[in-house]
Amino acid sequence: MNDIADRLERETDAARAVLAAYHDLLADDDGLTDDMIEGQTSLTEAIRRAVVRIAEIDAMVEGLKGLADKIGKRAKRLAAQKENLRTILAVAVEVVGKKRLECDIATVSLIPGQPKSIITNEADIPAEFWKRADPEIRGKELLKALKEAYEEKREIPGAILGNGEPYIKIHPL
Fold first, then answer.
1. How far apart are CA 101 and CA 92, in angstroms?
2. Most exposed: 8, 34, 87, 127, by fewest CB within 10 Å?
3. Share of the chain above pLDDT 70, in %
4. Residue 21 located in a structural domain
5. 159: which strand partners?
6. Residue 73 domain-assigned?
7. What is the pLDDT of residue 39?
């Protein structure tokens, strides 16, 4: 990948040099400028390949999201099936009246469960047993307030309004 980036950088530098040398000749002729860039470099082909790769990546990401969703659902079904089987085993051992049953591949033992809390009314539970949520900055509201503060020439302590990062917009055919 480094060789490709180096080659592209050299070709871009060469295209800049050609364009600078022929600046007076090209004037405002965008078509001629585009033709000269393409003639001196493979920049257009590199851009085309990057756009195709972005489309491939988008398709793969969407496919993987769908697959991950299906796998997650399957994992939940299997976990539920496992718990159902464990419950059936516990009932079977209990019905027989034994603490354990042996077979050729395992011994199934019925172990008394640990005590657990059962909430009957949340409102009655004392505050000492509640966990506070971690504070979280509401980003959209802060951005809106920063924009308003900028217009009004005032500041919001602890935050500033920054320039957005440039991004590429691809217009498919």
1. 9
2. 127
3. 83
4. yes
5. 156
6. yes
7. 60
In which residue are the tokens 């000749």 written? 25
Model pLDDT for residues 32-45, shown as the tens digit of each residue: 556 655 565 566 77
Residue with tokens 């080659």: 7
Q: Which helix (H) or strand (E) holds 26?
A: helix 23-26
Say how many CA atoms lie within 13 Å of 47 toward its Cβ.
Answer: 12
- Answer yes or no: is 83 within a domain: yes
DSSP letters for 48-77: HHHHHHHHHHHHHHHHHHHHHHHHHHHHHH
Closest-CA residue to 160 (of 172, 145, 171): 145
Cα gap 137→143, rounded to integer Å: 11
Q: Lowest mean pLDDT of 29-33, 63-67, 147-151, name the range.
A: 29-33
Return phi, psi of residue 100, to 5°. Answer: -155, 150
Range of 71's domain? 2-111
Nearest to 161 by CA among 151, 141, 146, 140: 146
71 is a domain residue: yes
The count of domains in the chain is 1
pTM of the model: 0.49
Exposure pattern of 77-102 as b/e (b: 16+ CB <10 Å)? eeeeeeeeeeeeeeeebeeeeeeeee
Q: What single-letter amino acid sits at 146? A: L
